[in-house]
């Protein structure tokens, strides 16, 4: 064979090999797709996707990621069937043929809630129940033109909002607002409700959200947070919108607010700015002008606030990576002047009363930043990373004067004190979760790691002069003049590893292991001022403390889950936790203590779908609660010598049992919804205060004296504390009258424990709260709402001077917006608050009426010039009655009173015409 023939054969062989390799590689294709809700177009997470052959035998299985995406790679040519299933939706099946290119499938799932009477339904259902989500159609609720999202959300059955904009749903605090399933101002969910206009909302979803790890693996780890998801209208997902307002009034009152948003599909940018001196202390209070919904305002006084917030969301790498982040800045100055009348009702202080006057000037600057990255590396790998950062600087200058009396007239003590405190806190942390799904259906592994580190520094100056009287004559004068310097830090991390495995088509097992560590260090040095030299003296060992606390936990467990499609799902598990606590005190006396704790943690969760509209859920979990470093420090704080406090290094961790039973019933055809939940909590080793009170001078330690009329407090553990809370919410739309009726009822019973003068005291308080809301659904030119809330609380304490007493409140609020004569518009908000009397004292009431008269102008009537009046009757007052087991306190503080303001508002709306509905305002 000559050389040329040899080279020719080699080239032919190499060509054949490369061709075969090329053909083999070309013959491998990908089947991918996206799954959405057919009505809301929201991507669906956790939908099971099965790839079947022509004989319907299972070849591959996966589930959709948070973006609703799935993928099957390296598939040969042939005919296949794609089957999508989810407990809350109708199944979807489609045939596909791989020939010579990849295939993408868009799947829209319809709700599985199909009932016979729904055949006659036309249009979108008013309310629906899907898994852990209750969804309401925004069209069923009416808001004024250019209203913010909060005015719509508070009309949802079971939703409540307090005077600071905090939201509760079905009795639980809403911790997060998301938009179209994505993070949106996660640092402060209240901002989201003042950023989004109500008119862009298509659906409101109330979600009992599980952890990312639980949603991926299908096993419930007991972690829950109440989340509201705002689904935007399809034609409002791209555009620029926002608002701007400025106002100036008498006595130099001013308010400036700006919000600008740019939505471009998955890309969202939002910027908020505010500045005012009319007690709008956060973004949720924008436009309220110092008004409020309740009466818990005695610590607010008069405030100046400057704040800014920015949020960013976007998807990358073909929608496989979801990135979000937000930053929030706030600077405020608050002046509070309060008068308090205190009547003691417990123990040997039951014959005492106190009159107190207090002044404080509080300054605070805060920075918060959060981010989150969700990356679906492939169809079976997911990473979730969420870092956070915060910094806070606090300054407080104040004075306090009070006099304590015996039997209403005999002077027992008198005190005048001044303090100046400054502190900073810095915290950085994050959470990283990696999840992997094996080829075998049901087999997953997840690893989650979280950690944080913080520093705390403080400087406090205290000057107090206290006079003690005996038989109405001056007996002794004590002076407390010192300065304390505190430096501390803390850190912690929490790691969790879990593995799941299918036993059968309907049952699974999970193995989990958790390791957690916390470390806290505090060094407090107190120096007495030397009157003779005006300088700091030597370190006061008794009032100083250097303390380090370490906790280490190991927890392992096994869980079993059974899921019968569309009917029953339950999970049962048991884990064991072992913890070791190490305390190391250096000052005043070096002391090292060590303790270990062991506990079993059972868990149970069950969901029973009675039918397509009714559901019953039961959850039982146990948890432990670690004492704080301040509770553990054996440090005597006598900055106030009539209220001396100490820590307890021997405290045990609390062990909690939580049981929740929830029933949901929704009527898609009418929009009527009913939610009932019963919560029971029982705690062993609950941390409570042991209080020592005295009406004579008492020596606590060698050089620490408790004056007459004072109290000494130290935390201890007690067993058997429990609470029961039953919450019901009922939403009734009356289409004929164009009304939405919202009823919320809460019944509660609490068993409280304390130790008074070494005597174990068990007290009870129980009561009921009823809220009724009526909102019109006529049109945007006439919107009216009436909300009424009444609360009755009864307390029993067998050792109290008043063994049983009751307190009740009434709060009524009426809002009205009326547009007439084409461009004139009236806003009105009338608030009435009544607090009952107690111990023969009269009740208190407050009437607050705010109103404005304005005119709309510009072509689209999107600008408004108005004259606003706050507190027209000039009756605003901050009054509160606080009842505890020890005392009844009436507090009155300074507050914002009547003012007038000229305000200019502008609303921006510009949505892209490609969405099918172009608006430019």
Brief summary of the model shown:
The chain has 921 residues and is mostly beta strands.
Characterise the protein shown here.
- The protein is mainly beta and 921 residues long.
- Mean pLDDT is 85; it is low at 14-26, 113-123 and 915-921.
- The strands form 5 sheets. It has a 26-stranded antiparallel β-barrel. Strands 8, 9, 10, 11, 12, 13, 14 and 15 form an 8-stranded mixed beta sheet that branches. Strands 3-2-5-6 form a 4-stranded antiparallel beta sheet, with no helix packed on it.
Structural class: mainly beta
Largest sheet: 26 strands, antiparallel, barrel
| Spatial separation of the terminal alpha carbons | 85 Å
Shape: globular
Radius of gyration: 32 Å
Averaged pLDDT: 85
Low-confidence parts lasting 5 or more residues at pLDDT below 50?
14-26, 113-123, 915-921
The counted number of beta strands is 50
Total number of helices: 5
Helix content: under 10%
**Strand percentage:** over 45%
Keywords: Cell outer membrane, Membrane, Signal
Protein name: Outer membrane beta-barrel protein
Subcellular location: Cell outer membrane
Pfam families: CarboxypepD_reg, OMP_b-brl_3
Summary tags:
5 helices; mainly beta; 8-stranded mixed beta sheet; 50 strands; 5% helix; 921 residues
């Amino acid at each position: 064979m000559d050389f040329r023939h040899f080279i020719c054969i080699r080239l032919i062989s190499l060509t054949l090999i490369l061709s075969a390799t090329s053909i083999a590689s070309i013959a491998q294709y990908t089947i991918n797709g996206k799954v959405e809700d057919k009505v809301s177009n929201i991507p669906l997470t956790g939908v099971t996707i099965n790839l079947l052959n022509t004989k319907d035998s299972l070849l591959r299985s996966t589930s959709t990621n948070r973006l609703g995406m799935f993928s099957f790679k390296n598939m040969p040519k042939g005919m296949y069937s794609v089957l999508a299933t989810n407990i809350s939706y109708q199944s979807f099946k489609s045939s596909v043929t791989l020939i010579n290119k990849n295939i993408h499938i868009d799947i829209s799932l319809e709700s599985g809630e199909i009932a016979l009477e729904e055949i006659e339904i036309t249009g979108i259902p008013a309310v629906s129940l899907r898994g852990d989500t209750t969804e309401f159609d925004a069209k069923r609720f009416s808001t004024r033109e250019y209203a913010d999202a909060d005015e719509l959300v508070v009309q949802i059955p079971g939703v409540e909002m307090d005077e600071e904009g905090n939201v509760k749903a079905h009795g639980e605090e809403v911790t997060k607002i998301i938009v179209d399933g994505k993070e949106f101002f996660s640092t402060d969910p209240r901002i989201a409700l003042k950023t989004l206009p109500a008119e862009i909302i298509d659906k409101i979803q109330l979600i009992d959200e599980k952890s990312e790890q639980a949603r991926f693996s299908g096993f419930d780890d007991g972690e829950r947070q109440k989340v509201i998801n705002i689904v935007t209208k399809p034609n409002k997902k791209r555009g620029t919108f926002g608002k701007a307002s400025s106002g100036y009034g008498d006595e130099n009152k001013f308010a400036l607010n700006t919000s600008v948003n740019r939505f471009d599909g998955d890309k969202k940018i939002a910027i908020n700015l505010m500045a005012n001196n009319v007690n709008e202390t956060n973004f949720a209070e924008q436009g309220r002008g110092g008004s409020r919904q309740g009466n818990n305002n005695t610590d607010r006084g008069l405030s100046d606030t400057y704040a800014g917030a920015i949020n960013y969301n976007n998807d990358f790498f073909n929608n496989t990576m979801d990135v979000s982040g937000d930053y929030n800045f706030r600077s405020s100055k608050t002046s509070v002047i309060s008068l308090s009348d205190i009547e003691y009702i417990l123990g040997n202080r039951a014959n005492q009363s106190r009159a107190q006057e207090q002044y404080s000037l509080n300054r605070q600057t805060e920075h918060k930043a959060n981010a989150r990255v969700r990356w679906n590396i492939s169809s079976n790998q997911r990473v979730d990373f969420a870092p956070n950062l915060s910094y806070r600087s606090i300054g407080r200058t104040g004075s306090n004067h009070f006099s304590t009396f015996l039997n209403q007239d005999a002077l027992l003590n008198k005190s005048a004190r001044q303090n100046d405190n400054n502190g900073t806190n810095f915290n950085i942390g994050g959470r990283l979760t990696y999840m992997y799904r094996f080829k075998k259906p049901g087999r997953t592994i997840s690893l989650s790691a979280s950690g944080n580190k913080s520093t705390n520094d403080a400087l406090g100056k205290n000057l107090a002069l206290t006079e003690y009287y005996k038989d109405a004559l001056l007996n002794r004068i004590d002076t407390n003049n010192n300065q304390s310097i505190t430096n501390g830090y803390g850190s912690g991390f929490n790691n969790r590893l879990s593995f799941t495995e299918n036993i059968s088509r309907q049952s699974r097992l999970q193995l989990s292991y958790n390791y957690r560590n916390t470390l806290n260090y505090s060094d407090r040095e107190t120096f007495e001022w030397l009157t003779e030299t005006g300088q700091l003296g030597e370190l006061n060992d008794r009032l100083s403390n250097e303390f380090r606390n370490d906790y280490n936990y190991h927890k392992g467990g096994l869980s079993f889950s059974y899921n019968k499609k569309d009917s029953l799902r339950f999970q049962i598990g048991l884990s064991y936790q072992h913890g070791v606590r190490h305390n190391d005190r250096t000052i005043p006396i070096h002391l090292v203590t060590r303790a270990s704790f062991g506990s079993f943690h059972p868990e149970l969760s069950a969901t029973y779908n009675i039918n397509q509209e009714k559901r019953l859920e039961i959850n039982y979990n146990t948890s432990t609660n670690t004492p704080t470093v301040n509770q553990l420090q054996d440090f005597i704080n006598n900055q106030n010598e009539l209220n001396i406090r100490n820590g307890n290094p021997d405290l045990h961790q609390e062990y909690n049992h939580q049981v929740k039973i929830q029933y949901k019933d929704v009527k898609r055809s009418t929009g009527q919804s009913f939610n009932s939940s019963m919560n029971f909590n029982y705690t062993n080793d609950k941390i409570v205060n042991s209080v020592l009170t005295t009406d004579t001078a008492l020596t606590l330690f060698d050089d620490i004296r408790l004056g007459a009329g004072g109290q000494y407090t130290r935390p201890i553990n007690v067993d058997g504390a429990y609470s029961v809370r039953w919450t019901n919410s009922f939403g009734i739309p009356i289409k004929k009258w164009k009304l939405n009726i919202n009823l919320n009822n809460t019944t509660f019973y609490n068993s409280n424990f304390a130790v008074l003068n070494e005597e174990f005291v068990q007290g009870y308080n129980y009561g009921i709260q009823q809220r009724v809301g009526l909102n019109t659904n006529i049109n945007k030119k006439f919107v009216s709402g009436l909300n009424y809330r009444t609360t009755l609380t009864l307390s029993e304490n067998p050792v109290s001077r008043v063994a049983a007493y009751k307190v009740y409140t009434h709060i009524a609020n009426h809002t009205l917006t009326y547009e007439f004569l084409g461009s004139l518009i009236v806003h009105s908000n009338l608030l009435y608050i009544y607090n009952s009397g107690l111990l023969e004292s009269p009740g208190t009431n407050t009437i607050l009426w705010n109103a404005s008269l304005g005119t709309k102008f510009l072509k689209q009537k999107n600008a408004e010039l108005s004259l606003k009046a706050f507190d027209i009757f000039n009756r605003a007052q901050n009054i509160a009655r606080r009842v505890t087991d020890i005392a009844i306190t009436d507090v009155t503080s300074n507050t914002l009173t009547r003012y007038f303001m000229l305000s200019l508002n502008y609303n921006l709306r510009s949505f892209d015409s490609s969405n099918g509905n172009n608006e430019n305002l």
